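step: validate -> pass
step: tokenize input -> pass
step: predict -> running
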Amino acid sequence: MAEGRIDHDPRASALAWSLRHVGHEVVALDAVGGADWADSTVAIPARFPVGGGLAGAALRRVQPSSLRTRLHRRRLAEAVSATRPDIVYPMTSSLAEGIGSTIEGGAVAREPGWTSPPRDLVWLAPHEPRFSSSPAGAGLGHHMTLDGSPGYTPEPGRHRGRKVALVHRHTTTTPARYLTSALTRAGVEVISPGPEFDHGEADGLDAVVIVESPYPPAALLGESRSPVLMWIHHGEHHLGANLRLVDRLRPDAVLLAHSWHLAHRFPVPVHRFPFGVPVELFPDRLTPWAERAYDVAMVGAGMHDRGGRYDVRHRMVSELEDHLGDRAMFPPRVDPSVLAAIYANTRMVINDGGTRHHPITMRIFETIGAGALSLTQDQPGTDVIVPRQHYRVLDVANVVDQVRSLASHSDAQESAAQAHRHVLAHHTYDHRVDELFDIVGATTPSGWKGRPPADSLLGRVVDHDIDVDTIATDSPEVRSELPDRVVWDIDHVIERLASGGRVDGAVFTRDHPRLGEVVKATRRFIYATPDVADRVSDALARHHPQAEVSTHDGVMRADTGTTEGYRVRDEAST
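step: predict -> pass
step: emit ->
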């Protein structure tokens, strides 16, 4: 829904296409009712009164704009209520804040940076299965939802004779390495081919598990002869790429590590499959709380970079370093074994997931597995994974005082010890192996066909890069063949440059007087047909001299590498 026109908004059309593609009915509600990409439309004119005549015209002239806005939003809210939607997608944050109180039984979808509205889908989904299910039906709920279960210690070798292919890029930090170790401890034969797997090369598989990132993505060859599952580690900022992967790889089910409010975006059953404690990283006997060298620590990106999605993290780290000195430990990214040693020697670990999604991060499980107390953002679903009494909600505004208060507090020490016992009984990767085979037993072939590939060469080259969500282009082919991307006209993008607008990709088929500005403002990939390739090459030399350029049947593709991503160029050993 939108207050003005929604029919020409590429953000709305891409969202609507994706929702319809996976099985939802879409109603577009705006001022004109002209969205031909929706199943149905509702028009709520912005002017009031609607009718003509001198009296109506005079009343509209003297109306304060604030009154007109209030009247229009009230009528929009009434129309939403009459539609009785399951989920409402407001196109602006101001609409999201005002619409939640008017709907009964439904939920409001919002972007991560928006204020939480009434009936917030993000907070409802972890606890209401109908909001954490896909159109294909419900998956298995996570088996530890504060049910008081005493837990158990998984027996080594309990799944001997079973066989799983784990398809992923082999890096030192992917959680797939911990799942592999746990499968092996359970007696499972693990085939780990790297980023490409041919179904015909392995017999007797119980399952194929694809791990989402890093990119370039995995590839499956041949016809599947066993259940295919896709384990997704990221939230909103990877959603477009992950939906395209589901189209391309056609898994039978999706496993979400967190962000269960996104389950309705997938065309196959979605199961909750959180991260876990990698027990192999930590010693059996942990360093006592009183003997730990640090009061607080954290390992992660952006801790010493001002601005951007980790600005809150940067500010907290700066304050803690200034006030606690060598009692605080905030190194840059390190090897997992070094990370584990740091966490096992600190009393507390702060956890901030940034502003782009709502993650229940690996850091929570690494912290508690190391016997430290987690000071974490209160992300939706965290209380489903770790009972609230086993962690503390991070006080961002007073983090120094919070750390100082807890460092010598006996209750904090006992909370850390209770949490450690709890996760060892419920949330190790060894427990995840048992959950994985429960999901495999409940999985049937999905029959999902996905979106057909683009017809044109240009469309296919662009479509190959699944992590490009927003595109500036002068090509009608790209608009029509990639309906799941937010495709802006180049002239519109130029208008947005003054306010810092940027795009993930740019596609040029002809020259443009301000082509260089668009090239400069492109985060990742730039494509050009032969007629304009020389001009684009000149712009790349000025603005992105580091770009890696290749040619695909005449179409130039340049990877600028100017934004932090989850791509790897060289594989590291596991």
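step: describe -> DSSP finds 19 helices and 23 strands in the chain.
step: cleanup -> pass
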